[in-house]
Amino acid sequence: MSIFSGIWVPLITPFADGAVDHAALRALVRRYADAGIAGLVALGTTGEPCGLDAAEQDAVLATILDAAQAGRTSRNTSTNISAETDPALPVIVGVSGNYTESMRERIEQLNPLPIAGVLMAAPYYIRPSQAGIVSHFMTLADASDKPVVLYDIPYRTGVRLELDTLLTLASHPRIQAVKDCAGSLDTTLALIRDGRLQVLAGEDLQTFNTLCLGGSGAIAASAHVRPEQFVALYRALAAGELDEGRRIFHTLVPLIHALFAEPNPAPVKALLASQGLIRDELRRPMTRASDELAERLIALDNT
Asked: Which top EC class is given (predicted)?
């Protein structure tokens, strides 16, 4: 069974007075490890990687990897489970860009690291052909020592991964999963029925539907806020407890709506800041959530 199942949190990057707040980042990793999530995504869109220089990206990843091991180990200090039998919380790393060669170089830099895989979207802005997309991903998968998770998010990249493209890419042994943000039920269902790619919901509101259809899990920014409930949702549906899963999901829906009422990750950061976990800071051109939305989020979180 692929490791790309369950609830994954695409980690924010906390800032304090303009600099990366590594202490807060480390604490967040421990929080999500203790909540029972399946893994973390480092330097994904929610982590504002475009606002980090290369050295900062490497430092953020190093902190996450170290905390993922330390968090899992500390969780086992009261048991007889060792780090060897309960490995570090898996971490996927986002790799972005629109030039194949520079992305290949980045993947080669990541190969020696103890990561679970790389997450890659289609080349953004330039809108290549489907043949160009296949060549791009095949080249990058050839260069990677780790599994590849495709990221189908056409409203950010300007081009979607067509079903035939995804099925062609599924033939590569290292392309193992897809973060599904395309909004096509036909494509989602076809991929699940094909069975070669693990399908992870990438739109938080589609988590319930995707899991019920047979998807493997979700990469959900909303899970920053109520990770235990998202884990309980996944476990209920995996156990066939549809009524319980539906009940949990319905309690999450108002919060999910609010967390995406303004550009991500501003609402997530506002709510985490209200809980004292981080400071409410983003890097330009991202801006903080409005005061009105922040108040609404706090009210929802307290219900």
From this structure: lyase
